[in-house]
Write the structure tokens for this entry.
Amino acid sequence: AAAAAAAAAAAAAANSTAVMPSPIPNNTSLVNNNNNNIAKREPMSVPLGVLRDGSQDHIKIIQIEKSSEPLGATIRNEGEAVVIGRVVRGGAAEKSGLLHEGDEILEVNGIEMRGKSVNDVCALLGSMTGTLTFLVVPAGIPQIIPGGLGGMRDPPVLHVRAHFDYDPEDDLYIPCRELGISFQKGDVLHVISRDDPNWWQAYREGEEDQTLAGLIPSQSFQHQRESMKLAIAGEVGLRTRKDINGKAGGGGGGGGGGSTLLCARKGRKKKKKASSEHGYPLYATATADDPDPEEILTYEEVALYYPRASHKRPIVLIGPPNIGRHELRQRLMADSERFAAAIPHTSRAQREGEVPGQDYHFISRQQFESDILARKFVEHGEYEKAYYGTSLEAIRAVVASGKICVLNLHPQSLKLLRSSDLKPYTVLVAPPSLEKLRQKRIRTGEPYKEEELKEIIATARDMEARWGHLFDMIIINNDTERAYHQLLAEINSLEREPQWVPSSWLHN
């Protein structure tokens, strides 16, 4: 039943559509759309009686000079009619303002379109060259808004970071596969149209110069089908995210809701798989704090954050034990003019030689417990009947001093830290492959056990799987010196270049 529901919901999101082959208006002309002018043409092959009520009074003729560029529109069947299904942002159809979603195409070069399938129409248009004359029944007169492209208001752009992998070639339900764009977890996408509740139009970061926008699943549609995957998985007892969070769209390639399409966007490069080292993907779908295996992550709204000299972003190092986080932190802290540690709090008594506010912030056990309940500590623990912890205020004090605070934390601390005003930059320090990790221990003379190395790798994989969407960077620590310089170069860029961060950080 759940499988049938999933198929029905996805099928509802995918019309039988096809991309109209390659005409682009160069010297486009719109003949006066009144009955006198229409009467001068050859008699219409489509009887007026089968047109929409009153639509014969609004028929228009559009002449388009066909070239190799895409039109940027799809077609679909509505009964016997051939209708414009979608106008893609950035395409010639949108720029011309002459074709709109819902327009019915009656004829092309005198050839009747009614009764033809989308594939028949695409094959016919693909064989035509030169001037194409479209006889069109408009769906309605679009609202003219000054400054809008093609007579329509340019929508605000929504910037999102993807938390799942997507390949339109694997998606049975995308209405136009050739218009789909692939992306990986962590990619930033610029959504320029959300008119369709199931399919957004977007560009990948760095590819805004593409002629046409591409299709991606909307947040609600992606959430809906992932929810159905979870329901199906629950029926068969598969509760791990590894089993149920594969490539979005799933179901294999070929066939399905999208027709075989003849012509799409020109020169669209297929997105390469995200780079990885030794089997560690750069991003993963996960949850913060104690992850709920049934929480579904789709997109996160992001905004550009411009570095401020008065606010240095804290650097958070995450990773399994014995992977070199401590050494990397110490290398950074050696530059005491630039980096500093947050002074920890403790409930134990002050010892001889210790300076309050320099070695520790000494507070009572009662005060410490009260601060825990008030969520003032990003991380805390108890050792020999005394509390120790790192507070948000201690981190803020470092930031206020103009230095970069460097923290070694457990990933469970990220939820509270990211909900603060501190805007942390989180780095996962991960091990190389088992063989390279073994060679590194031999090279440095460190004693090791095989099971210990396997545990380090397993822990890193688990962290990446559960909290990967919270990591800004992953460093493979096969060589500490190299890892240090890689980390330092990234920190330097944070002070010079804008970064995409959760939009909520800029609204707080």
